[in-house]
């Protein structure tokens, strides 16, 4: 039976035509070209005597012949990695720099590279480890092999009689095109896009079993078409019988019970690590493939899912962090959008996500225990393979950039002569632009009555009493004259009024970063209270955060931030 050809529709192509459009000499300087200069580095060190070559973006070898090297040299870098190359005025060209298993290869125009004698510094190219591709193609009837090359390079190899080939040094991190030519090298068999990462070792099957209707003998055995997507483990072996799941990007779990598995299976890969899935037509989705402590998980637009070819699993990670509970809450549910994983915090808000995808940004959500659809908070983080990431949340409580977020100013009405500008309910009038911080800040002007208990303040009231027992610090920026104090309080009425405040801190005309550890909240309602008793009395039920000035005339506040808090 005649094996069907593959890839794109066949294009008639004479050998002479190939030669006409693929002459290396066409790019070696000459009239209308300009000399550019660069430096080639490997891990920050010079790529001494690296091979440098420039080819037209559509270059293909003009004649059949094995070329195992990525490119043959037009020139070489010197001992320090410096090189020069002539790029013509018009058109796009692939510049390739290669050296002992590492390479740099990109498509560029003349304007994208430094010009000798004009640019003070050469362009820097960083060589990265190459990849390895093994593949198989259909052999046309009457032929014994197919030629396989990479467009824009000199590499050209010949398959064996079964259609297998190997490309041992493919440049990484750039879109490439494989091209296929018949054994006589006079007819194109199509092209195929390819993208590889450094040190990747992949196997791709370019065979396509297509039998013309009504022409196949009844006893003909048609090879089964391989599933679309190949999942590989870190070492390049197939991820056999791995769990595969597709979830909407904003999907949360439906049933709230502890689930330590990353995803429940929609299907599994086969014995070769391959799978097919019916992809959606629109929307954004997280695709996850997991097996034995390794996982691939990434967000795709629906249109990109159909283009997937090869996925490589990385070792998973763990994330340990905390969220701030409301007073009286026993726990929160913690999950990751697009995964089925769900855990509970302890009564201090601490939690561990035991197995999550690494090297990908994860959107974490927190849900109230008594209202599964009520979102409590969100956070974003990323972890490295094999590691447990101990993440401390950071929450900007107020930066004065986008409104005032329920902040207010207030004065003690008991003492006549105490004034504060802006006035109560007009805190927005105190927001000004500060050229030093290059942002909006709060500015207040005040005068205190002649009494030790007179006060003015700027701050906020939380909607709920908050359990701040696990916070690390409160940080804000301030300047002005006189002194300033931070106070965390639980003021409900005159009979229920707890306070934990700092001593008075001096201000100056320059901005200073003020960091307050809870152990420094030493001022309570009673003069005999210690630092421990003042903070322990209020930390489980904080309702207000207030900043007080004293002994001056004006003060500025910016970027009030809670470290170790999230709500």
Number of domains: 3
Q: Tell me the CATH architecture of the largest domain.
A: Sandwich
CATH topology title of the largest domain: Immunoglobulin-like
Secondary-structure-derived class? mainly beta
- Give the proportion of residues in helices: under 10%
The proportion of strand residues reads 35-45%
Number of helices: 3
Structure description:
The chain has 3 domains: 1-186, Immunoglobulin-like (Sandwich), CATH 2.60.40.10; 317-393, Immunoglobulin-like (Sandwich), CATH 2.60.40; 398-563, Sandwich (Jelly Rolls), CATH 2.60.120. It is built from 3 helices and 45 strands. The strands form 10 sheets. Strands 33, 35, 36, 37, 39, 43 and 45 form a 7-stranded antiparallel β-sheet that branches. Strands 34, 38, 40, 41, 42 and 44 form a 6-stranded antiparallel β-sheet that branches. Mean pLDDT is 86; it is low at 1-32 and 209-216.
